[in-house]
Specification:
The complex is a heterodimer of chains A (223) and B (967).
Chain A: H1 10-16, H2 18-36, H3 42-65, H4 79-103, H5 106-109, H6 114-118, H7 120-154, H8 157-172, H9 181-197, H10 200-222
Chain B: H1 2-23, H2 25-36, H3 38-48, H4 53-66, E1 74-80, E2 89-97, E3 107-113, H5 141-147, H6 157-170, E4 205-208, E5 215-218, H7 240-246, H8 262-267, E6 273-277, E7 283-295, E8 303-309, H9 317-320, E9 331-345, E10 357-375, E11 385-400, H10 405-408, E12 414-423, H11 425-429, E13 436-437, E14 439-442, H12 454-457, E15 476-481, E16 486-487, E17 507-514, E18 523-532, E19 556-558, E20 562-566, E21 583-593, E22 600-610, E23 612-613, E24 619-622, E25 624-625, E26 630-631, H13 639-645, E27 649-651, E28 658-660, E29 663-666, E30 671-675, E31 686-693, E32 696-697, E33 718-722, E34 730-739, E35 745-754, E36 758-763, E37 774-783, E38 789-801, E39 806-813, E40 830-833, E41 836-838, E42 849-851, E43 857-860, E44 868-877, H14 881-891, E45 901-912, H15 923-961
The chains are: A mainly alpha (223), B alpha+beta (967).
Amino acid sequence: MYPKLTPKNKQTFFKTNQELLVGFGVALVCLFSSFIFPAQNTAQIITRNLFFLVLLPAAYIKIILGKDLADFGWNLENKKVALPWSIGTTLFTLLIFYLMLNYTGLKTGYVLASYLKNSFWLFLAYELLAINFVVFVFSYFFQGFILSLFQKEFSHFAIALQTVLFVLAIFLAKALAWQTAPFILLSVTAGFLAWKTRSFFYSYFMSIFAIIILDAYIIYLTK
Amino acid sequence: MKTGLKKTIITFLVIINIFSLTTQTAHADLLGVALGNPMALMDTVMSAFGVNKDEIQNMMQTVNVARKKVTPPTVSITFNPTNPVPGEKVAVTAAPTYFMNSPENLYYTWYLKSAKCFAAKDLDSNGHEYGDDYKKQYASQEDFDKCDLNGDGKVDIEDYKIKAARILVNNDFVWQSADYSKDTDNDGYTAVFGGDDQRGKSEHCFIHDVASGDDHEIKCEKHLFPNAPSDKTGDGTFGASEEQFWHTNPNNNDTAGTGRTDEANVAGLGENVFSLIYSAGDKVGVAIEGVSIQPTQEKDSSYETMWAFTKNECGNKDNIGASTDNSGYPKTTGNTTTTYPNTKADHSVTPGTPPTLYSATDYLTTVTIKTVEDIAPGTSQVNDNATIRTTTTTHTVVTYVGTDPAILATNPILDEMTTSNTCSQLEAENGAVCSGTDEYKSIKMTAMATNDLNDCLYNNLITPAEGGGTKEKLDVALKYLPESPTNDSSDPPADYKTGDPKGDGDQVSLDATVANPNSASYLNYTWEVYASNEINPDDWGTAISKDKLDGATQMSGLGVSNLKFNLNFKSTDFPPANVLPKYLKVKVTAKETLAEGSGEREGHTDITIPISSSEERIRVYTAKVNADNINFPAEKTDKAGLAAQERCLFTDPKSNVKSPSAVCEVAKDEIIGVGIDDGTESDPTYTDFLWTIDGATQACPNDSFSLCIDKDGKSTDRTYFPILKEPGDQYAIELSALNKKTGERVDLTRMFKVSTPEAKIVPKEKDASDKYICRGLLLGQYLDFYGQPHDDRSDTKFQALTGNNIELYPVFSGTTAPTKFANATDCPYEWTVDGQNINAGNATTFGYSIDLNDSGKLILPPKNAGEKYVISFSDVFTPTNATKQMLNKFWNITYNQFYEKKLTHNIEIEMVDTTIAQKTNSPAKIFATVSSGIPSYFAFLFRIALAGLAIILAIKIIFFILPKREL
């Protein structure tokens, strides 16, 4: 059992939860560095995000904590649980996307470049390369690293915590708009799936699948 | 008693007569004259009243032919709209003139020919009748049947009339569903020749001969109304069959709603407007029946019933088709010979009468009689009537047919011609021997009838275009800008490229507008430009070709309502005189094609543009500012000195020719002097100067500004102005001046841009033998707009050959710098060479030198191959104290507002001992280009890895410091 957090045993709390607190600090430093570290071109930006959001947390886990990456979502276990929940979460996410497209401004606010609408191969390259990379990096960092960090202590509240952190990051990057709304929703549903399956890979697959479906549907609606 | 009374009376009468005779001598003369010579009597009377006999004769001659000058009835047709498009409703209005009747009493017989209908007497495109082959024009029997409206197996003018009449009388009545089994509306109408108001008068129909002016009477057989088959329009009955044929309402006596009955409407009574839905190729005509202003010569109230036609083309000999003039006279009849055996005749006793025949055996008399009828001398034909004189010639020959040789020898016994003729009554009364009286009779040759007028109708069809108005001229207006354009005949700038303006001449822009087009989008414009030295020459010559108009936009085409071109003419453009013109005439022609090949409308206008030519430009100088005076950098008389100090000139690197820059760069807080070359002081070229800056009048505050204000306080050929705007802003300086010699006004403009001053170190590239001794590193090549490659060289990294001094010039942009310094302290430049501060005072100490007579350039000795110089230059741009004082004094610029900028530049020079590489495609260079990009990414990777390591290390330290967690 974990000690209650009282003023008297604050020191005990810190001692008991130092891994959580230091890990949270590392997560903030990584997130912060991924925004402010100077990068002059696209190659450097990609490298920066990959380094601070994937490699550095992995290095922290392996080098500092001395633990296995599998404990932080880097695994494909729990397949029996993962399959039905993946399907259910995917369907739920797509349903929410559908409702948002019909009842909110998502359809007009979520903009895809015209060259994606006119060329299937460019659309495929965009989804499998650009979106794939972004979803992988953010899925690992939020639903893998951060969720795993919080879920030991906060159980299912970790889903909300990593979502809040994600939204805060978007807000600070001044990217809070319909363009990022699907990703905010995914941080909730994918976070739930990651919490359920203890693996960020299922949430990553679900997210990329849902985004592809969403983009394809929007192209269908707006072409 | 009785005898005495008689004597008394006789005596009394004698006395009275004696007195009468003596006192009335004149009367007795008149009486005598009248009795003996009537003409003389007339002359005497006319002389007594002062009447000029010649004038009377002249008047009578006019009266004699007045009848031929009477204008016959005519009609004019207008279409509204004037140029209808297919499907559009058109109202055709007939305006009759010279009819006695009021328009509502006239009969208007309209007829309509559609493009698909052809009749034998229609004219083809060559003006020939189709003739009997007209049916070949129809594509099918169905098309023919559509045109043969009366079903008589032929298409003719009757069908055209029926088509028009149906439109007129139907008034959109839905006749297809009407019940024509009975007719209850009693809408008959009885027509009258000459119009509805000629009832009760006798009918006399005439046709006017346009050439002779005579009116010829023709038979009043039929009106020209359209008729239903087996029915006659205007007969007073309009039964169901006619109602059905004409598509009128059998239960409404006025289907058309005109206020007249249906039959009257079919007859065209008062129908002066015909409305139809226009189809392409439709032709319309009208024949109007009424009475002319000319009365008949009958002894009744009748006037001449006549017809007016659309083109008024039915009144010459050809149209009439028959001769009704006196060309048939003289007529010769007779020449009959009669032989009378056993008859003799003696000489005629009575003049003019033939010998009398009497019986005589063995004599044979042959009588030949010839009769000639001719217009009586001294008379002429009046309409169809003339006085005919009959001349009879009798040739009597008597011959002896017996056996007596003595008598035989005298044959013919008689051979005599006698002539007799009729004469006028007056001649007979005067004692002329006549065989009778001349006969006044009609000499009409043929019996033309009203029905024959139908043949005229084919020639009187018109299209809307022919109906007038559609060919209305286009009303074109033209305007141009600028108001006083100036030509620049100087040579193109050194950096002139094909397509650029050749000079600084004004661009003339002309706009044409058309006030009355049918469709503004389909107007075809053609522009022509002419030149002359006179404002209104007899002949403007040939138009200037487009290739001689610098920068001319399109000059012809659809919608080309605007023309622009630059006034950069040279005198050699106008051979053989080779003189620049003072005036241009620009002519624009607008044309609009009418629908369906009906021709086109055209309108044109022109405008004369006075142009002034000037090679002058506004010259720019940095003002020389002293504590109490602002002047140009050289005296006005020192033209060479001024030329050397002129700013904003572009020097062509190849030809070294200087030409003014389009935009002059200046720096903030500079005081600029601008002026023009005004000839000599004793004989200036210009006067009446007006300087403006950005549209506002510019005037110097006082005479501290040297030669800016003349003794009368007016502006001169120069002015000064401060640069107070921020970098990036612009000034437009304009000068308007009057050329005293030519009287032309010149308008000059110069643009200024406030730039941030910059300085660069520019090495001298070539030595005296034109060999490169110092050059920037080749970075690559760029392609200009024309696809030509140009080297792109570094302006910070250079290579220099060993064995040559390196000369480094400070080059400024956005400002000027002195080319000479009087002494070292005047040169403010600061150099650093390999870390050492070098200036004009200590350069020689380090083995360098600064040339104060050549823009303060720095001269460095060469180093060994592979070695480098690292050089920097520094200067502060700020106005001089004198300038600051003037800016503060005249323009209220305070001390904290003065512009100040540090100008610096750094370069690196590597010494090489071989020829400086000038080619770019060596492999080493390619690798260098690639490798030049790689290090930055590796550097980034290195930095990010370091950052990651630092974070990990920090975390490690934190964990090390933190107390261990109790498990």
